[in-house]
Amino acid sequence: MADQSMTGADAPATGGEKADPATVFAALAEIIYQGSDANQMYAAICIAATLTVRGCDHASLLVRENDKYITVGASDRLAKQIDDIERRAGDGPCIDAIEEETPQIDTDLTTPSLWPRLAKILVAETPVRGAMGFRLLIDKRKGAALNLFSDTPNMFDSESAGRAAVLAAFASV
Questions:
Q1: Is residue 6 included in any domain, yes or no?
Q2: What is the CATH number of the domain that holds 40?
Q3: Residue 72 covered by a domain
Q4: Angle ∠(88,50,110) on CA atoms, nearest 5
Q5: Which end of the chain has less neighbouring CB within 10 Å, N or C?
Q6: pTM metric for this prediction
Q7: Is residue 151 one of the residues assigned to a domain?
Q8: Tens-digit pLDDT profile for residues 84-131
């Protein structure tokens, strides 16, 4: 029997390798400049992350309002659930990105993690194995972060982080 494993161009796309970034950014710009409401824009940013950031299977946008963290956009139901878990755990990539104002990256939550409480719950209850958070500003006054999650450990790399940073900067405009 011949080896039927897929490699290179034949392999199915993983999270974030599903669309041309230029096409996605053009569509995002159209949504923003057409005056779409904030919720549509936030959801579009999260979906764009899953289409353009290598390894990103789920994404959310968390905003700090006063002393609360609120999910204002998500690519899917699991992304919202992960934000709820992060709030309960009290730490994670999104919260740390907002509070520390620096990108947060943990490529493998199954090994000792930057967020041990969150990692333990995510590994036990979800398919998520990697996480990144990038701070952005919303309405020029609220701290916010773009949260990205991978179902495969070690899928996030420097290219993923670079694309996520560009998307977060774009979302802050």
A1: no
A2: 3.30.450.40
A3: yes
A4: 50
A5: N
A6: 0.82
A7: yes
A8: 999 999 889 999 999 888 999 999 999 999 999 999 999 999 999 999
Cβ contact 115:89 at 8 Å:
yes
Residue 164 belongs to domain spanning:
18-172
Contact 21, 52 (CB under 8 A): yes
The answer to whether 157 touches 151, Cβ cutoff 8 Å, is no
Query: Which tokens is 123 given?
Result: 């590994």
Angle (nearest 5°) at CA 56 between 52 and 58: 115
What is the chain's percent helix, strand, coil content, to nearest 5?
Answer: 45, 20, 35
What's the total number of domains in the chain?
1
Contact (Cβ atoms closer than 8 angstroms) between residue 91 and residue 58:
no
In a domain, 51, yes or no: yes
Question: What span, in angstroms and rounded, lies between the C-alpha atoms of 82 and 70?
Answer: 12
Instruction: Take residue 166 and report the two structure tokens written for it.
Output: 């560009």
Could you tell me where the DSSP H helices lie in 14-128?
Answer: 21-33, 38-52, 77-89, 93-100, 116-125
What number of CA atoms fall less than 13 Å from residue 173's CA on the CB side?
11
